[in-house]
Amino acid sequence: MKPTQEMNISLVWCLLVLSFAIKVLFSLTTHYFKVEDGGERSVCVTFGFFFFVKAMAVLIVTENYLEFGLETGFTNFSDSAMQFLEKQGLESQGPVSKLTFKFFLAIFCSLIGAFLTFPGLRLAQMHLDALNLATEKITQTLLHINFLAPLFMVLLWVKPITKDYIMNPPLGKESVPL
Fold first, then answer.
1. pTM of this prediction?
2. Is 177 part of any domain?
């Protein structure tokens, strides 16, 4: 095959990993829904609605504050889709509107949030148990750092933190990116 006709195989692997992870989370959530006696079902639904509202609030924030790249990604996708449809001989304004795209993205985020509710609660309980069993201060400090590491990764998406303090840190007279 010509190099222009080849497909990037890493995309296939990423999609496989995502599909298997979502399948496991979905089967775990269906197990919680089958239990009649617990409050797991209502907690999953409540957290699903909570994450839906949270995702809608995050998607309203402009690209000046959160650097997701949705605006440029959506524009590139729409342009490519319109070119593809024109080559096929179809007239179209684009695949979907930006509002519809963000709405379906918020629904997807709420489903993922609902699926991750109980694993997150189990992780928090495991963290508390590990803190109760740890006696040394250095071990407790490392456990706290391990628990808060995902929060630090999420904060890297906030544009003022990333662009101002990481890409151009104020290190005296020099401005060297970290």
1. 0.67
2. no
Question: Token pair for residue 81?
Answer: 């889709």
119: CB partners within 8 A, 6+ apart: 25, 28
For residue 76, count other CB atoms closer than 10 A to its CB. Answer: 11
Query: Over the stretch 107-128, which tens digit does the pLDDT of each residue have?
Result: 988 988 888 888 888 888 899 9
Give the C-alpha separation, 14 to 111, whole Å: 19
Are 158 and 65 in contact by the 8 Å Cβ rule? The answer is yes
Which segments of 61-116 does DSSP mark as H helices, in order?
70-87, 98-115
Tell me how far apart the alpha carbons of residues 120 and 19 are, in angstroms, rounded to a whole number.
19
In the structure encoding, which two tokens stand for residue 88, read together?
A: 């096929």
Question: Does residue 6 belong to any structural domain of this protein?
Answer: no
Can you give the residue range of the structural domain that contains 22? 11-116
Asked if residues 109 and 57 have their Cβ atoms less than 8 Å apart, the reply is no
Beta bridge partners of 171: 174
Cα(149)–Cα(143) distance, integer angstroms: 10
Q: Is the dihedral of CA 109, 115, 121, 126 positive or negative?
A: negative
**Is 130 a member of any domain?**
no
Answer yes or no: is 48 within a domain.
Answer: yes
Structural domains of the chain, count:
1
- The string of pLDDT tens digits covering residues 142-159 is 999 998 998 888 887 776
